[in-house]
Amino acid sequence: MKIEYDRETCIGMFQCVDEWDAFEKNLDDGKADLVDAEEVDEQVFVREVPEDAEFDAEFAARVCPVDAITVYDDDGEQLIP
What we know:
Oligomer: single chain
Protein name: Ferredoxin
Distance between the termini: 14 Å
Keywords: Electron transport, Iron, Iron-sulfur, Metal-binding, Transport
Order of helices and strands: EHEEEEHEE
Radius of gyration: 11 Å
Number of helices: 2
Pfam family, one: Fer4_15
Strand content: 35-45%
CATH architecture: 2-Layer Sandwich
GO molecular function, one term: metal ion binding
């Protein structure tokens, strides 16, 4: 499973931070950071989700009020949102 995070879309509600510890508050920018992610496009970050964190990653994506987080299965199929 992979997670994709569009940091430009983020509005800094930090709900994802409360759901998965891979997201951290960046108060200087007023946005969340996705730890250990690779920037694949300008302000778009991707990382693998460990099996034991899949539920938390999915929930972080579900609670994002602006759909800045997308989750994909191992076949590249979009799961959330």
